[in-house]
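For the sake of transparency, this paper describes our internal protein records without simplification. The tokens are whole numbers drawn from a learned vocabulary of local backbone shapes. One such record is reproduced below, unchanged from the form in which we store it.

. . .
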Amino acid sequence: MQFGIEINNENRYPSIVLKDMVTGSFTEIYSLGALLNSFTIKTHNGTINIIDGFKSVEEAAANTTNGFKSSKLSPFVCRLNKGKYNFNGNELSIEKFYLPPHAIHGIIFDAPFTIVSTNANDDFAEVILQYNYTSTDKGYPFNYTTTICWKLTINNNLFVTTTVENNNTFAIPMADGWHPYFTLGETIDDCIITIDSTEQVLFDETLIPTGEIIEDGRFINGAILKEVFLDNCFKLNTAGTSRCTLENDKLLLTIQPNNAYPFLQVYTPPHRKSIAIENLSAAPDAFNNNMGLLLIEPNKAYSFTTSYELTIKL
């Protein structure tokens, strides 16, 4: 059998490794937040992990909010203006977590997901994790279930599908996303990024959308990241077929979201060792500006999928 799975139950939060035993590539998933902590492949010069992750589950538990590495963004993405929004005539205020003055990156980024099932065969290895949110934050007094499937397949291709189910008797507001940091070497400055987008969501000085969409085709044909500083949200040209690539002289990473993720947030941290490339179902502050906001109906599943494919160039 080409693929296998290992589960480490020694820590408070189990971790899962999906392995391609032919190529030697593998991924490590933490049940804490269902986050992707590594995506490692064998190259001609050894192995490389393209995920800027944590050294251990314990470090992740203690430092999740320091950068939100690989965090699940739900039920809102990026920033929510001062943590407040109005729904069905009620003004609600999120309690968790603030990067003043705004609430940031949702509520379940450090949730303890449960391993529902695993499967491995000659075609793939996958793990399915689940978390039931039960109105624990007064600013989001709704119940919903998040199920996440991580699947490693041939050709160093990693798929992640998030399925959300509304456990209320009425529709609730929802946005979904991911916050992974990618690194193809010592610095992102020698990387080229290509984004199939010619439109940017304009932000104010606190990174809240103004409501305006502006033209921005800087990355449509690829641009080197040296001296480029980003914390921007791009609207993909064609949801479902538009992609983003990150490459250097050794590796090519292709990020392919389905049509449930029409927005892409890109952030270059000051250390320049990695870059956050975030698939989003809606723009930041969608609970207030309605840009991509979903009202998910009860007893109906909504799915969001993206894939990360690694190609060795040398």
